[in-house]
Amino acid sequence: MASSSTLSIPESSDIPQHLAIIMDGNGRWATKRFLPRTAGHMRGVQAVRRVVEACGERGVEYLTLFAFSSENWRRPKEEVSLLMRLFMQTLEKQISKLERQGVRLHIVGDLSPFEPRLQEMIRDAQARTAGNNALHLTIAANYGGRWDILQALRKLMAAKPELASQPDAIAESELAPYLSMAYAPEPDLFIRTGGEQRISNFLIWQLAYTELYFSDDFWPDFGAKELDAAFEWYRTRERRFGRTSAQLAR
Ligand code: FPP
What we know:
Blueprint: E1 18-22, H1 26-32, H2 37-58, E2 62-69, H3 77-100, E3 103-108, H4 116-128, E4 135-143, H5 145-159, H6 172-175, E5 189-192, E6 211-214, H7 224-236, H8 245-249
Parallel strand pairs: 1-2, 1-5, 2-4, 3-4, 5-6
Helix pairs in contact: 1-2, 2-3, 3-4
This protein binds farnesyl diphosphate.
Farnesyl diphosphate binds next to helix 1, helix 2, strand 2 and helix 3.
């Protein structure tokens, strides 16, 4: 299990070890071109491929993408089903390539409302890449940060029912192993495209000390050049984790 930045200070480096992205702006990209919103999602898949490749080349070890939030079910039915189809098709088409490239795929979120065939494809894709470790690619699907904290708490209480009578004994380090991304260090850099400056219930526990970068580019326009600009900005950040600048200079 990766330890929490509240408990220990991670090593700094020029390239984020863990990058988390909210891929926003697909709909607006399409609307601007008088295309249906779904065309934006299809172009969004190409951006996913570009960014996965660029992250691999630059030495990012963990890449986490917010593909579908628990709130996205509120979208029109046709858009939700297109997103599910795209997700299935992309998994089907890309899995062999990911396997060859040494990418380990993780899907996190509440997968229970997904149709059985999609759940099976997800299990299969994760199993096929389980031996890889060049890049851990996590897709957050039907994910919400509050859901994650709650499900972790439920699992902890089921595993250690004695904690109910001694709540003061519940430490961060007790809960963290039950979070759905316990296998990864916390993100060093968060990127949200599409011009909005919000976390939108993404990895709310894990983003506590993460550098936040907001890009006005719509997700379908995002690629290696835009990623490099974000990394350039990241290099200028002074990550103090509660310490003073003077302590860092020593
Ligand atoms: C946000 O844009 C994007 C989404 C809700 C879906 C993202 C999905 C993909 C890029 C395709 C599938 C992903 C994978 C990993 C295969 P928006 O629709 O909220 O855009 P808007 O804010 O302009 O309306």
